[in-house]
Amino acid sequence: MIVTRRTTFRLYPTKSQKSKLDYWRRLHKDLYNACLYHRKTEYQRFGKSISYYDQQNILPDFKECWHEYKELGSQALQATVKRVDYAFQRFFSGLGGYPKFKSARHYRGWTYPATCVGKAHTTGDNGYLELSNLGSIQIRGRARTWGTPTTCTIIWKQGKWYASITVNCEPARETSTGAIGLDFGVYHEASLFGWNNN
């Protein structure tokens, strides 16, 4: 049976990689806030609801105006736009409050879809992660069960970087050939005395 599991690895970027990761995090935060502002003002001023697809289709023109976003990758930018959409879905379904603008301190990271995480060079026990326009970053951690990567979320937490990778896998538990005893417990005891077959 195929299941989805998540494993978080610690990232060990170089000084230049760390600087770029910090910069990318700010860019994703600004994109998130811009999408939120777009939805909010379009509805308040014109009564128009903006969908995920509306904002996704704007991204090519957006990158032509803001060239620094080109190196982040289209799919990673789409995932950030999708985060805004999820926040509004939660609000409209009564599962959360109205989405708020994010500060740099509270914006944790961004997500790459499957096609961008095919370069996770690991079998679930340490290794390195290769990201476009950034190079290879050493990762440390151990997955209980490894499989085919589906998403990778880059997370900044308390001054450290992490990669949270989801994989599709078939869980397998190791078993030994030793004897196993099971005790189900006994709640009632019955005794028969004077049993006579005659």
Brief sketch in words of this structure:
The protein has helices spanning 15-46, 52-65, 74-92; strands spanning 3-12, 109-112, 120-121, 125-131, 135-142, 148-157, 160-169. With 198 residues, it is an alpha+beta fold.
What does this entry look like structurally?
- By secondary structure, the protein is an alpha+beta fold.
- 33% of the residues lie in helices and 26% in strands.
- Helix 1 packs across helix 3 (74-92) and helix 2 packs antiparallel against helix 3 (74-92).
- The longest helix is centred in the N-terminal third of the chain and has 32 residues, at 15-46.
- The radius of gyration is 25 Å and the shape is globular.
- The termini are far apart.
- The model has no long low-confidence stretch (mean pLDDT 85).
- This is Transposase IS891/IS1136/IS1341 family.
- Residues 1-48 form the Transposase putative helix-turn-helix domain.
Biggest β-sheet: count, sense, barrel?
Answer: 7 strands, antiparallel
Strand portion: 25-35%
Number of strands: 7
Q: So how many helices? A: 3
Cα-atom radius of gyration: 25 Å
What best-fitting shape do the alpha-carbon axes yield?
A: globular
The average pLDDT score comes to 85
User: What's the helical proportion of residues?
Assistant: 25-40%
H/E topology pattern: EHHHEEEEEE
